[in-house]
From TrEMBL:
InterPro entries: DruA (IPR025639)
Protein's name in the database: Uncharacterized protein
Pfam families, per the entry: DruA
Length: 213
């Protein structure tokens, strides 16, 4: 393996950051604050993810195509939704991951801690309407903790009774119908709350070995 000195490593890091849309003078900051500049920051990582999952994406392309619907053939009045929890090894898990990798400009990341995954499914068209990916929230967030009145002694108790929306959104062509609002609304459903209670009731936390209600 070729050795690299500190100066070369520093130059490589700076070059990489500049290619992502950062400027250094001497502080690190984006050239401009916009959605496009934020997408650019994640562009290289997203390309890397697509390369790493290329075999999976190609292998499951026909499965995804069999459950796609053209916007021209979609009657909004006939949309009939059900919530499907993702089970390992199912076709829904493959569809969930395929769209998770392809559709969003932010690269896919594996969820951490407690997690639940759902597809909002259009029964009429036999097609995925949107994705719901939930995971454990970050343990520390000063803005959130101040707003909720949490402190270091009770923050893990309350945060471990909630989930964070890692990936929430509608898929084409439903996104053109502002379907993302419907996906967000589904987060308030009793089905998700009840399934969370079933899955994590009486589970012990790893760090403090506590059972949370």
């Amino acid at each position: 393996m070729k050795k690299i000195n500190g100066k070369e490593l520093k130059n490589k890091i700076i070059k990489y950051l500049i290619s992502q849309g950062f400027k250094i003078n001497p502080h690190l900051r984006l050239v401009e604050q916009s959605k496009d500049s934020i997408r650019k920051v994640h562009h290289l990582k997203r390309k890397e993810q697509l390369r790493n999952h290329s075999k999976f994406l190609l292998r499951n392309l026909n499965l995804v195509k069999n459950h796609c619907v053209s916007g021209k053939n979609l009657d909004p009045n006939k949309i009939n939704l059900e919530l499907i929890e993702i089970n390992s090894g199912s076709k829904y898990e493959k569809i969930f991951l395929w769209w998770n990798l392809i559709w969003w400009s932010l690269p896919y990341t594996r969820p951490i801690g407690r997690q639940m995954r759902f597809l909002l499914w259009d029964i009429e068209q036999d097609a995925p309407f949107g994705l719901i990916g939930l995971q454990s929230p970050p343990l520390r967030s000063s803005v959130r903790d101040r707003f909720l009145g949490l402190n270091k002694d009770n923050v893990d108790y309350w945060i471990n009774q909630s989930l964070y929306g890692q990936r929430i959104g509608a898929l084409p062509p439903y996104n053109e119908l502002i379907g993302g609002k419907m996906v967000a609304l589904a987060l308030t459903s009793n089905e998700i709350r009840e399934r969370y209670a079933e899955k994590y009731d009486n589970k012990r936390t790893l760090l403090d070995n506590r059972i949370l209600p």
